[in-house]
Predict the structure of 3-hydroxy-3-methylglutaryl coenzyme A reductase.
Amino acid sequence: MEDLRRRFPTKNKDNDGDISNVAVTPPRKASDALPLPLYLTNTFFLALFFATVYFLLSRWREKIRNSTPLHVVDLSEICALIGFVASFIYLLGFCGIDLISRSSSDDDVWVNDEDLRRTVPCDQSLDCSVKPSSIDHSPVSGLESVEDEEIVKSVIEGTIPSYSLETKFGDCKRAAAIRREAVQRITGKSLTGLPLEGFDYDSILGQCCEMPVGYVQIPVGIAGPLLLDGVEYSVPMATTEGCLVASTNRGCKAINLSGGASSVLLKDAMTRAPVVRFPSARRAALVMFYLQDPANFERLSLMFNKSSRFARLQSIKCTIAGRNLYPRFSCSTGDAMGMNMVSKGVQNVLDFIKSEFPDMDVIGISGNYCSDKKASAVNWIEGRGKHVVCEAVIKREIVEKVLKTSVAALVELNMLKNLAGSAMAGSLGGFNAHASNIVSAVFIATGQDPAQNVESSHCITMIEADGNDLHISVKMPCIEVGTVGGGTQLASQSACLNLLGVKGSNKEAPGSNAQQLARIVAGTVLAGELSLMSAIAAGQLVKSHMKYNRSSRDIGPSSQVNR
């Protein structure tokens, strides 16, 4: 104690102004209140915390597998919960103890003999003022240079168009960062949660997205293996809907255990239908007869096919509304989805027809009789893209053990829901349970056009008894997919196509990769339909969604009560 008094003197002034040394007590630490040494106490509660967490997670996993309610607990679980709460409170409090100890130690450091012997008043020895010039007023941002800061100001003022940043600087990543900062300052809203780093912005220039400021992350799950036409596929599905991948995976399992599914490609033809106008309906009909005359098809095909080495005209079907003509061109497009390819071919034919019929007025390259990105009867009846039928026979024991329902229940549900229910709703191509769920997830994962999910999800699901077993099939007449072009060349989407074995163009048989992808889409839809229909028939749909597809994040307490 004497040593401490010598090391930590304090200064005290008497009435005469003399300074005398007064002994002080050493500082006490917050950890002195513990009955055991600090390191032993820490070790004990840390081990208790992890042991109880491991035990509780193991027991809860067993309950989930056995469908046992989580709130039913035994004595061992009660003890584990008490140990968990106690250790958690201690570890949380230990952070406070450590902070107090560090603060106390820091306070002691500056107390030395030289400091305590100073006779200069505090207000003269310490400069507590802060000069305004020492404060950094520069905006907080991810910009890399002062030059970028000036460019942001120019974008905000409108002197530099936002869309011209890539061509102006030749650096797509830098352009995205500048544009992002400008958007944040203009709107006053933060884009902190939207990633900027880790993406190849050069890969989307001029083909996938204009004026980018970041990219959205979507989780990708794997359903399968799906046994289709004797080959197993692990199907990537990009989705934010809980239960979707798990449900589709269960359908794949039931199909695999029953010997797999088989598919048939009925047709492969992308379409485009311009709208052209003539002086009279009679003149429009004359051109319609000309276009549909087999004698003229070879000449028209020659005009159409010169637009691409893969484009091959298959047919022309016309309809008339007044003096307006809508010729619907159908053609094969190789491994590309083919919208640009068929549009160029149609333009060549229109130029040729214009020379034969000068009074023709081209109103638009697309007259909606195609019909692209819209639910339509012409697509449902005639098809667009790949027309695929996929089927499987599910054994009765698999229906009962894996799908937890019966053949009779599934047959009845399909008739009343997918057929009669959809008819009562006036559905157009929607005679299914949730084909669009699977189509959208696979489309996003493999770089397809998500908007074409509208017609690509046209599907009729048929479920019938096959003796004691179950026969299920899906007919999808408008699967619009490609394995080259568009988003398929992006790194993530290209990896998913590679997983399916259909990446890029097939050199030996052009078009076969895109056709195989359409078969996989139909097979995955078959698995998803089988599983969801079984869940509905067994009364499991609501229970599974309440368990795996609910989130309380960003929801206030009152909203959670209502849920």
